[in-house]
Amino acid sequence: MTVPAWVKDSVFYQIFPDRFCNGDVKNDPPNLLPWNAKPTITGFQGGDLRGVIDRMYYLLDLGINAIYFNPIFLSPSTHRYNTVDYFQIDPKLGSMQDFHTMLDVAHRNQIRVILDGVFNHCGRGFFAFSDILENQANSPYVDWFHVKHFPVDAYSPGDATTFAGWWKYKSLPKFNTTNPRVREYLFRVARYWLEQGIDGWRLDVPNEIDDDGFWKEFRDIVKNTYSDAYILGEIWDGDARWVGDSHFDGLMNYPIRTLVIDLLTGKENASGFITKVRDQFERYPAENSYAMFNCLGSHDTERIYTVLNKDLQKTKMASLFLFAYPGAPSIYYGDEVGVEGGRDPDCRHTFPWDESSWNMELRQWTKNLIRIRQSKNALRRGDFKILPVSNNTLFAFSRKDGHDFACLVMNPTNQAVTVTVDLANVLPEGVNQLKNLFKGEIYTIENGEITLELNKECGLLLGQL
Predict the structure, then answer these.
(1) Catalytic residue status for 457
(2) How many beta carbons lie within 10 A of that of residue 179, not counting itself?
């Protein structure tokens, strides 16, 4: 396996570039929306790479050590999933120099950077598709796409019918990745940005690319260019066929997000939840399980604080679970300060840099989680075992790496509970006390068991003294 070891130690921060921070007003479009305006599909709000550079101190203070950027290449949209030029930074985000400065600042502070690779489809302005619109059947690029008949129509109202578009959108023509010239072009893009210094690729809708060895070739090129690169696939159903030596190191772990939300909204009980979590963990080879990108939200989902009805305690429990569970936890920009938002585009609000609007308790909780995870090998690299509990309205699991040990006990119910957790088969030799890794209270282990009192909707993260 060639899964990069650094992913296990990572806490990712996902940035939607147009909405994080406006650091250079000179590259703003003239029809810019106000920074705090309600996000729309078409309205730019001025975020750029200089803004990320300017706010790197904020990310360092938070404690993250990896960034995932939504697309940054030339595109006419706010989301940039309709790429026009894969070799050019969108001028509204800055210049190539800004990109290299951002990358340099990140790397000097031990922060890894991965970019969004949109290789299933492009934008209508992409040179090959633009040539088809100009020359129709006489274009030398007809076989770069899935043209059904001529004349190709990409601009009239309605779905794409003369060519294949992603989900029939005319603005997103789908590449013909069986064409060797298309493959060579896309592989050249992947190689180029790795040579510029990025640490990996997050791949958009990779399951929609004809699986005829494309991703095996892609993986070989990426790993031969930079053996420590992380390859992350956007696979929503968690199908294990997408991880391994022919595909990706890890997947965006949406199934775990769904389970956490179901638990905290009462759709799933504790015993059912932890059983499904175990089944999900065991779907993958161990190396890939620890390389999953664990998220509570993204640019494609409702904000976690909104999903949980602005319930601070439940939001804290969700992140507590995520940071104790195997894989790389990620924070969607602003979730750590309680940014709200419904479905796309409402989940893409600008970051509120006015600190008076921040949920400071949630931000401090997030900082503490990051600090604890970074200080405990067990939470980053330890094995994962579900622990027997005396009351199945709760659940508990352990993480153990050599002598380093941690365990999480969670009570998702609406009443206080006393529970005994059996640690006999997992506790390192000689350990007879555990402490609350947040508050420091000491708990004594007797006959391999620990008895705890948990308030309603509460979790305890314990480790050895």
Answers:
(1) no
(2) 14
